[in-house]
Amino acid sequence: MTRQLADLLSFRRIADIPFESYMAALDSWQLTGHDGELRLGNNLLRAPIERDHHAGTYRIEVRLARGLLLPPVRMRLDIEPWSPTATALELIPCQRVRPSAAYFAAGHRLLDSLTRTPPARVPAQRRPDQDHLRAAVSTGHPALSRS
């Protein structure tokens, strides 16, 4: 697959979660997950989390579920710091993909669930300038949880 085509079939999000907190959440499911796997709906994230030391990016293998009758798509989730208070996520296909409505809906749903909030079991770093973030996070549901 050419890089240009992969760019058109990739999904990107910026999560308003500090990178260290986001990675701590991912590390916690990797340590407590069943066989190193985490289910988010019908999607599957598979440990181990790999690190590209040169680029500073972390990678996770993903199986993106598009529907009951379609096989999951092999994807790669790249995670990297965006700013001191945000994390960038990119979901990239690792195989040929038919760009259907089901594919795009599934990719957007998965990234939406990964960018809502970090898991509740990971304590957030408290800073006085983040009081508004604590209030917003405390009302949400954990985005990364075992099912």
Verbal overview:
It is a single chain. The chain is of the alpha+beta class and 147 residues long. It has a single domain, classed as TATA-Binding Protein. Helices cover 30% and strands 31% of the residues. The chain contains four helices and six strands, in the order αβαβββββαα. The chain has a six-stranded antiparallel β-sheet.
CATH class: Alpha Beta
Low-confidence stretches: 119-147
Computed over alpha carbons, the radius of gyration is 15 Å
**Biggest sheet details:** 6 strands, antiparallel
- Counted by DSSP, the helix tally is 4
**What name does the CATH topology carry?**
TATA-Binding Protein
Provide mean pLDDT, rounded.
Answer: 77
Structural class: alpha+beta
Highlighted features:
single chain; 147 residues; alpha+beta; TATA-Binding Protein; six-stranded antiparallel sheet; globular; disordered C terminus
Summary, kept brief:
The chain has 147 residues and is an alpha+beta fold.
Write the layout of secondary structure elements.
Blueprint: H1 3-9, E1 11-15, H2 19-32, E2 37-40, E3 43-52, E4 57-64, E5 73-83, E6 86-93, H3 101-115, H4 131-138
Antiparallel strand pairs: 1-6, 2-3, 3-4, 4-5, 5-6
